[in-house]
Design goal:
44% of the residues are buried. The protein is mainly α and 360 residues long. It contains 14 helices and no strands. Helix 4 crosses helix 14 and helix 6 runs antiparallel to helix 13.
Amino acid sequence: MQEKITPYHTAILVFMAQSGIVIFSLPRLVAETFGTNGWLAIPGFGLFSALNLWLISKAYNLCKGKSIFEIMENVCPKIILYPFYLLCAAIWALLGCMVVKEYVLIFQMISFPTTNPMVFKFCISLLAFLLLIKDIYTISKAITMFFWLFIWMNLLMLAFIPDLEASRLTTFLFQEGGQWFQGSVKIYTAFLGYEICLLLFPHFDSTGKWHRSAQIGNLAVILIYTTICLVGFMFFSFEQLRHLTFPMLDTLAYIRLPFIERLENLLYSFLLLNTLDTSVLYYWSAKTALQRVFPKGNNKWLSFVIVFGTFAVSFLPKTLKEISDWLYVIGHGALYVAVFLPIIVIGMAWLQRKGQQPYG
């Protein structure tokens, strides 16, 4: 009997899928988009993702725990769904790949400026492949272990309390911002990852508590993102915040220990665990979609094609600016999938319950 993912693991999966290295640039993105006191907009994005999770829970109830692919294939011919599956797989695989590429470019910049970043990218891709060939329950246990190795870093924000000044928040609300739509897409990409719950329907236990756990994971992300942005707005002036590429990475340089130099390099290395988890979950989502198109495909070969196929694509963007452009385009696609796929599944599950004959 296949082991099920418990509510405890669900909360951690959602948290690790959503959080990532965007925390280092998030305060700047918020300042550029919403202007002064832009940190107040973060809970609004979290509320939208919570609403989307609620829709996913309604889809789960209508599907009665069955795979969303089974539901869709009972309503639509597979020949129509296959291009959609391939599109979703491409979006998720590329998103998982580009998240890692962004990480290695930053890591190279701050620690190994003379090393080819694709060496680091290959090593992380190899680790991702070794995880991806396992079943989702094993992956969830590994991610849980990585979670406890990573989560303590959020306590470092306490070190900045003596240097925070409320006067830097100013009395103005959402002034001097711009490009709200484009900026909002970039910010909301930081909240994506919860949509993996759609693919986990057959793997949840029968207690039905996964939705509450997923909301807890999402709430933890909201609290951490809001706190990070608030610290950024109170630690730097508004103009500084808009001109620093990675403001939260710069704050780590202010932490001093008598026995370690350049502590931010060491701390950034711990973020590898979170980046690896995020990429593996997106790769697993892509593999799950591809398995519907190639049902007889070998698990290891599909994993190899996804991981190292996207590794080849990652040679194309060479700078952080190019990575940002790629993530903006791919993030658009991932956002539409996250928002509209639950609605599509709900509609198809409703049609099936109305007695529509399944397609063979």
